[in-house]
Design brief:
This protein has 22 helices and 20 strands. It is an alpha/beta fold. The strands form four sheets. An eight-stranded mixed beta sheet has the order 7-14-8-13-12-9-11-10. A six-stranded parallel beta sheet has the order 15-20-19-16-18-17, sandwiched between helices. It has a four-stranded antiparallel beta sheet with strand order 1-6-4-5, covered by helices on one side. The longest helix has 18 residues, at 24-41. Residues 1-58 are annotated as: Disordered.
Length: 607
């Protein structure tokens, strides 16, 4: 459930828990905290909590019935003796359209129970049954996680504790090189007090920053706050290393300006005809990042009259629209696809937008999102840049494709460029506090054994947790199962999971409910996971930008982190860029990687 969705339901649930638990609530929370501490510090398996303090787990079984009019059905089974487990699903076929995904099992065929049949028997039945046929599928139970009883405030408290504990790590990024263009940009702030004296912040906002654990600004925040908050409203293209505090670099000055100068009056009539008219629009490439950004906005607006909401796919258009009908919204954090859908339904107007922010701008302007972003930024009823609209682009990488698009969406004479860290053209950059290691692993079948051994070598539960990236959903699922068998607390995550399940997994990992998160690229960009000491890339991506963002899940805000990647013959495409990236960040480059890069470049020029 999104942080801003159905607040009344969350309020009722909190009230119910208070009435139900009374004075015992604090004791139960303390018990849960002790359990998490003991499991995170012990090198062996975690000792199970006493039965009376462990909340009852709820098993959620989800099924889907699909009607097939013709063969082939567009799916293939996994190679196993018992039952029919889906291994492949063809796009555009009935099963895929009904939400059936890899790992689902066939329960019934034309009403016949298949739970005890072998894979061969079910395949034969599917071939012989008369058409049309209805097939019932069941979703794997491990993906149907129980809803968490912890609320959003607990998650924010975890982040605040995390920031307070690691404030000293800021020194690791304070000395990074800074490039500013033009040179006459406003001087960076020295502290939050300095920002107050320059009337960029107010005392109330500084108090909230301290409460959130942000005692002093990071390097990018010191430079971005005066640029974004300047009375002449600079546009900004900001490039900073992963984990450097980019989100708050635009959240803080944007909220401060609204609090200091107020929101413009906009029309609003509650009810079915209501239309949301935001003043600030934040575009994010993924649902999780939109939710997280909205949550950070809420930290800064708490106690004020400012309102915000997140909009994303995963809920119906009707659900999104209904949340716009009760009160005017000042700030919207959205994914492009869902925003366009609501614009088409006339449930949102962009006519009053004063500031638009592209978070993780490189991914926003790539592939299919490029068309959507162009539609939003230069089409619809969005004010043109010439009207004074402020546009902010933040990302770890700013490739040439984005630079080419900037003239269409930015004001040429009022645009600032800010680069923090070690960058060279479009190669990207990463905090030098991250040690990057490569392992030659030509046979992917042997990697799980290597992974388990490497976890024993490079991972210390006392120092943090682990994020493991794979390129395929099926691989993520398999890795999670095998790591659990080794006694490790683990969950898997990919884009095909239900939105509520994804949010529960994200929130559980932030709280420390489990030690290892196995994920596809859904977790690689922008998301802030506290205390991640090790990132493992079980499969390398084809794109160096994806590699950069994966690595950036550790070493947040200058902390020390390790990034381990497995390399094989299939990774020729990324070899040359990876050599450049490692050299740029003063990391060791193995000879086999250099050889692979040379061979790949030779073949590319030959053909």
């Amino acid at each position: 459930m999104a942080p801003n969705r159905d607040n009344r339901r969350r309020d009722r649930s909190r009230s119910d828990r208070r009435n139900r638990n009374g004075a015992s609530g604090k004791t139960q929370q303390d018990d849960r905290a002790k359990q998490r501490c003991s499991s995170s510090s012990s090198p062996a398996k975690a000792v199970p909590a006493p039965a009376e303090t462990k909340p009852a787990k709820k098993t959620i079984v989800e099924t889907a019935t699909v009607r097939f009019e013709k063969r082939p059905f567009g799916m293939a089974p996994a190679k196993e003796e018992k039952g029919y487990m889906v291994e492949k699903v063809a796009e555009g076929k009935p099963a895929a359209e009904a939400g059936v995904d890899v790992g689902w099992r066939v329960l019934k065929v034309s009403g016949q129970d298949c739970s005890q049949k072998s894979s061969a028997e079910i395949q034969a039945l599917l071939k012989e049954v008369s058409l049309p046929v209805e097939v019932q599928f069941q979703k794997p139970e491990e993906e149907a996680l129980p809803s968490s009883e912890e609320d959003e405030n607990n998650i924010q408290n975890v982040r605040a504790d995390h920031r307070r504990q690691h404030e000293a790590a800021l020194s690791n990024i304070d000395d990074l090189p800074v490039h500013r263009d033009p040179e006459e940009l406003p001087e960076p702030i020295a502290s939050w007090r300095d920002a107050c004296e320059r009337k960029l912040l107010n005392a109330s906002l500084v108090h909230k920053l301290h409460a959130a654990g942000l005692k002093r600004p990071t390097l990018i925040q010191r430079h971005a706050v005066p640029i974004v908050g300047h009375q002449e409203h600079y546009d900004l293209v900001a490039q900073a290393q992963t984990g450097s505090g980019k989100t708050f670099a635009f959240v803080i000055p944007t909220i401060a300006r609204l609090l200091l100068r107020g929101c413009p009056a906009r029309p609003f009539f509650a009810g079915p005809t209501a239309q949301g008219c935001p003043v600030v629009l934040v575009l994010s490439p993924t649902r999780e990042l939109a939710i997280q950004t909205c949550s950070e906005m809420e930290v800064m607006t708490k106690g004020s009259k400012l309102t915000q909401m997140s909009i994303y796919g995963g809920e119906t258009i009707k659900e999104s629209a209904k949340r716009l009908e009760t009160a005017p919204i000042d700030i919207i954090c959205a994914t492009p696809g869902r925003l366009i859908a609501l614009l088409d339904e006339t449930k949102i107007s962009l006519a009053y937008v004063q500031t638009v922010i592209l978070d993780e701008a490189d991914q926003m302007l790539e592939q299919r999102l490029e068309i959507m972003c162009a539609d939003i930024l230069v089409g619809r009823d969005m004010p043109a840049p010439s009207s004074g609209r402020q546009t902010l682009l933040f990302s770890a990488t700013i490739p040439q494709k984005i630079k080419d698009m900037c003239p269409q969406i930015l004001r040429e004479k009022r645009t600032a460029h800010l680069t923090i860290g070690f960058y060279d053209d479009d190669k990207g950059g990463s905090c030098d506090s991250i040690t990057q290691l490569l392992r030659w692993s030509p046979d992917e079948k042997d990697r799980i054994g290597e992974l388990i051994r490497d976890l024993q070598t490079y991972w210390d539960r006392k120092k943090g947790r682990v994020v493991i990236f794979s390129n395929l959903r099926l691989t993520a699922d398999s890795l999670a199962h095998q790591l659990k068998r080794e006694g490790m607390t683990c969950r898997h995550l990919h884009g095909k999971l239900d939105q509520e399940v994804r949010e529960n997994v994200f929130d559980g990992f932030r709280r420390g409910d489990f030690d290892i998160l196995v994920a596809t690229n859904v977790a690689s960009r922008g998301l802030d996971f506290p205390d991640v000491s090790l990132v493992v890339q079980f499969n390398l991506p084809d794109n160096i930008d994806v590699y950069t963002h994966r690595v950036g899940r550790t070493g947040r805000i200058g902390q020390v982190g390790h990034a381990l990647a497995y390399l094989g013959p299939k990774d020729k495409k990324i070899a040359a860029k990876l050599v450049e990236f490692l050299e740029l960040n003063k990391q060791n480059v193995p000879d086999y990687l250099r050889d692979m890069a040379i061979k790949a470049e030779t073949l590319k020029h030959r053909y």
